[in-house]
Each structure stands twice: as C-alpha cells, then as structure tokens.
Design goal:
single chain; 571 residues; alpha+beta; three-stranded mixed sheet; two-stranded antiparallel ribbon; 19 helices; 11% strand
Length: 571
C-alpha cells in the first residue's frame, strides 16, 4: 500500500472568528481550559487546523450557499479556461479590473488557520492527561499526541506558503496574537518565509510517520513525513523560480532539486497510469482533501441536457470551461503538435484526421476535456452548431466549445427518483509534481538535460520522461536547455490541467505577459454531407500588467495595520 495522506472532513467544532489576524479559539459551549482538558476535544482542535486546507473549487454544499467566487477555478484566470458567468469576480483578473479594494481570491482567511495552529501549539505544550493513565485508551492517546505538534506545524507552514505565493512578503505570526499585536505585526521577506517553512518541515519530517497504518486507529487524512517533504519542496521551487530569483541563482535551484530528490528516494510514492482525481487508492497521492457526497460539481459542469432541469436558472452559466489554448497544448499520441489555426487544423502527424481532431491525442486529454464527439453517459457530445449540447452560455452552453471532464463523476444522476451523488477528492499534492520539480530544478542548476553526479544520480531528462512514460506518451530525446524548458512548461500544463497550477506557473516563470492576452475557443459547423468545419474563435481579449505577478494586499488590512505597507508594487 502506498504511503500517502488523505484528507477527510471530520466533525469540527463551531468556532468564532474575526477579521483580524487574531482568532478566538473558544466557542459558546466550552472554555479553552475545558477543551484541552480532554483528549477528544483536544484532537478536535487539531482537526480544526486541518479544516483550512485550501482547494481549487467548492465541491461541497448546496447551490443556494455559493457565490460565483466559490465556483470559479483559478485555471479560468489563466489561458487554460474561461468561467461561464461574465459578472463573476474572477473576470476582474482577466479584464484587469481588480485592485486592493476589489480583491480576487483573498486568502487572508488562512491567517485564521495560522492563528488556530499557533493557539493549538501553545496549548498542546501544556496538556496533561496523566489522570487518565488507567483508561484503556490512554496509551493510544499518547502515541497520537506525539505527532500533534508536528502536524500543526506543517499545516501552518503550508498556509504560510499559500499566502506567500499570493502576496510575496507577508506577516508571519508564530504565536497567537491579540488584536493590538495583530494590527502592529510587520511583514517578513518572502525568502525568509521560505527559510522558516523549510526548517519547520525538516523537523516535522524527522518526527512524523510515513503513514498511519501501524498507528492507533489507523487514521487517514493526517499529515505525514511525505507531506512535510512536499511542502518544503514546493516552497523551494517557488523560491528558485524567476519571479523570486531574478538572478536565477543556481544554488537555489540545487536546493530545490535536492528537496525533490529526497522525496524521490524515500520510495514511498509511485506514478500511476490511473487518474488521481477522485481516486483514493492512487499510489502517487501525497495529500488529498476529500469532501462529502454531493452532486454539486456535476450540476454546474455536466452538459445541461444531463442535469434533468435541476440547475437553477440564476446559476446556469456557473461552470469552468477549457480553452482552445489548452486543447492545442495536448499533443497527438505520437508526440506531434495539433493546433487549430485560422486556416483550420495543422498537424504533421500522418495519422491525424482533421475531421476527427480529438482522436488519438495524449491520453491526459480525455481525462481533462469533453470535446465534440466524446462519448459521455452513453451519448456523444454534440458541440457543433445545432447539436444537442450547443446552447448559448446563458442557457448552460460552453463559451469555448469544450466542457470540463476532470473531477466529474459520470455516474452522478439528476433523474427524478433516481438521483445519484458521489464524493469528490481534491488532490493537494501528488508525486508527478516532485518529478517535474526535479526536472525543472536540475536543468536550471546544471544546464544539461543528461547531467548527473554523485549527489544527483538522476537527470532532468529522466524525470521528465518518467512523467511522459506514465501518461503513455513518447519519450523526449536529448535536446538543448531552451528546448527542454519549453518541454517542461508544456508538461506542467497538460499533466496538471485544472489542478490549480497554471495560474501560478505562468507567474513564477514570468511568462504571463505572453500567455494572458488572448483566449480562444472553437466554433464547429456541420455541413449537409456530414463533414465538420472547425473555426478558431477569439472568445476574449484579456489584460495583463506585471503587478499581477503578486496579489495586492487588501486595502482593508492596510487600514488596520499600516505596518503591512508598502503595498505590492504597481497596486
């Protein structure tokens, strides 16, 4: 069995929060002293720290409790997709109409998770359950208790990372602050944030188990050694990337490569040819957040004819749709590019059929995208003009000519009296990320695709080809550094499409000025003889400013705490 971490939604305490960096850990039923007097409620407080793990989409709940901001995925603020609703807040990122006052994806709530972790760490240092030493569960409690502080510290480190990749320099409280302290705290420089994350994860990795199979209750959903190593690796990758390393210091890239190598050499994870989304048995999942059973995701992503009228009219367009830009990134299964141009489909693959342009593509295409002609729920998708799935966006149609396939559970049903719901799993980190991190770091550190030495026994080319081989794609041969970097960028894109990577990658690579300009879709006409005409369609012209590499600090927070100044450049 693989050594992985899965996140389950455990029952959590109803806790009171406020808008400052401070956070009240008490509730109306128990005082803090009461909570930490008992093991079960102490464990519940740790569970509360877990509850802040971010994910790319609000998979849970009912339609009446969500806004467009909950439903939109960040990939639709990149060249990979478009969110259907034109008035959604995510559109402000695409049209340049966001600011410190009109924020997007304000992750400031993660300070509540950090506050919860800090408070938990302060209290856990003083808990005393010795009065229960004759309780039958006491020994198991003590075994679990030894990991609690390290779980909380890794979660806190992860929340710091999520804030830092949005805002750069951030406030970094390492203790629970009262309101006055919260409104005086100063920012910590981005690289110093990364250094603390690395130290925390190193110490935690040395004290956490590979998994909990031999631990009391055999719990899944808890932070492991592997996730501590993953958070460290991810933080070092961002610290080495051009956005935060403009001189491209090779020592930072070597450190990133070493962190990825350490994870490779644990032998705890392995690539899997099976889809990781919604797959709790995947051998490559390091951390996964599972959500409760629901039809929510399918309600807004099924082609509308499969929803049996269940989608409310005011939510009809609230889905995420892949772009032609993304479709063009998927090669044929022989490794050839296939792109839709103004003159039609262009591809040098001798097996490519422009009447069936979605046939014989990279297998990852079919996990990600529903295109015209795809079989879905025993019916072909018809996105040509007049087809069964050709609707205006305002009536549930696709703005780009494609539907999202990833994450959808095809067995979900909205048929009256035969409704079927499913659980949905958000992958926080999987092993393919480690291999691509290693490949990218090695090429920047040493400049040669085949470079190895005693300290780095695997080459950048090996790591990239491991991912391609697992996907069933042809291997890449030796090439120049620049060509290899282009291949790396491509592989990140298709391997992690709609897994909340592209939005961040184009920023850390500083290529958004070229990618975040034009979003394309496809329009398809069916001729009287049954042949299809494919037209490349410029769906949206977008705006980009270099200040968008980082988020603006919310103006409301600057009003509370002037020490959070200066505002990020350009905002």
């Amino acid at each position: 069995m693989s050594k992985k971490t899965l996140w389950f939604i455990w029952p959590i305490l109803a806790l009171v929060s406020c808008s400052y960096l401070d956070f009240d850990e008490t509730n109306e039923l128990k005082t803090k002293e009461d909570i930490y007097k008992y093991f079960n409620t102490t464990e519940s407080m740790l569970t509360h720290v877990y509850s802040f793990i971010p994910q790319g989409y609000a998979f849970f709940g009912t339609s009446g409790t969500f806004s467009a901001d909950d439903l939109a995925m960040r990939d639709c603020a990149s060249d990979d997709g478009e969110f259907g609703a034109v008035e959604a807040n995510i559109q402000n990122v695409n049209n340049g109409n966001w600011s410190a006052i009109k924020t997007f994806d304000s992750a400031w709530y993660l300070y509540e998770g950090i506050r919860a972790a800090n408070n938990f760490l302060e209290e856990i240092a003083h808990v005393d359950f010795s009065r229960y030493q004759y309780n039958a569960s006491y020994q198991n409690w003590m075994k679990k208790l030894q990991y609690f502080q390290y779980e909380a510290r890794v979660l806190r480190a992860y929340y710091f990372f999520e804030l830092a990749r949005r805002y750069g320099d951030i406030a970094m409280p390492l203790k629970a602050l009262d309101k006055e302290e919260a409104n005086r705290i100063e920012k910590t420089a981005f690289y110093d944030v990364i250094r603390l994350i690395v130290r925390e994860c190193d110490e935690a990795a040395n004290n956490l188990p590979d998994n909990y199979l031999n631990e009391p209750d055999k719990q899944v959903g808890r932070v492991t050694k592997g996730f501590a190593m993953a958070v460290k690796s991810k933080a070092l990758l961002y610290a080495a990337s051009e956005l935060h390393n403009p001189s491209m210091d090779t020592e930072r890239w070597k450190e990133s490569a070493k962190a990825a190598l350490d994870m490779i050499e644990t032998g705890s994870y392995a690539l899997s040819p099976m889809e990781s989304a919604n797959n709790i048995s995947s051998t490559e999942v390091v951390m996964m957040r599972m959500n409760s059973e629901t039809t929510h995701f399918e309600l807004y992503h099924f082609p509308v004819r499969f929803t049996s009228g269940a989608r409310a009219s005011r939510w009809i367009a609230y889905g995420n749709f892949p772009s032609q830009n993304l479709v063009d990134a998927f090669e044929t299964n022989k490794g050839y590019q296939a792109t839709l141009e103004d003159i039609g489909w262009v591809c040098e693959d001798p097996q490519f059929n422009p009447q069936k342009p979605y046939a014989n593509r990279d297998p990852r295409f079919y996990r990600t995208i529903l295109a015209n002609g795809a079989e879905f729920k025993k019916s072909p998708i018809e996105l040509f003009k007049g087809g069964k799935d050709d609707y205006p966006v305002t009536q549930g149609g696709s703005p780009t000519g494609y539907f999202l396939r990833k994450y959808m559970q095809e067995t979900t049903s909205f048929t009256p009296d035969h409704q079927v719901s499913n659980k949905h799993h958000w992958v926080v980190y999987r092993y393919a990320e480690t291999l691509l991190t290693y490949a990218e770091s090695m090429i920047h550190a040493f400049g040669e695709v085949n470079y190895t030495d005693d300290s780095f026994p695997y080459s950048a080319l090996w790591a990239l080809n491991e991912v391609r081989k697992n996907a069933g794609m042809p291997l890449i041969s030796s090439c120049s550094k620049d060509e290899f970097l282009s291949r790396i960028y491509h592989e990140w894109r298709v391997e992690f499409a709609f897994e909340d990577h592209r939005f961040w990658d184009v920023r850390r690579w500083k290529i958004a000025d070229s990618t975040q300009r034009e979003l394309y879709g496809v329009k398809i006409e069916k001729q009287s003889d049954g042949t299809l005409l494919f037209h490349k369609n410029l769906y949206e012209t977008r705006k980009w400013k270099d200040c968008m590499h980082l988020y603006p600090i919310p103006q409301s927070e600057l009003h509370k705490n002037t020490n959070l100044n200066p505002q990020n450049a350009g905002w």
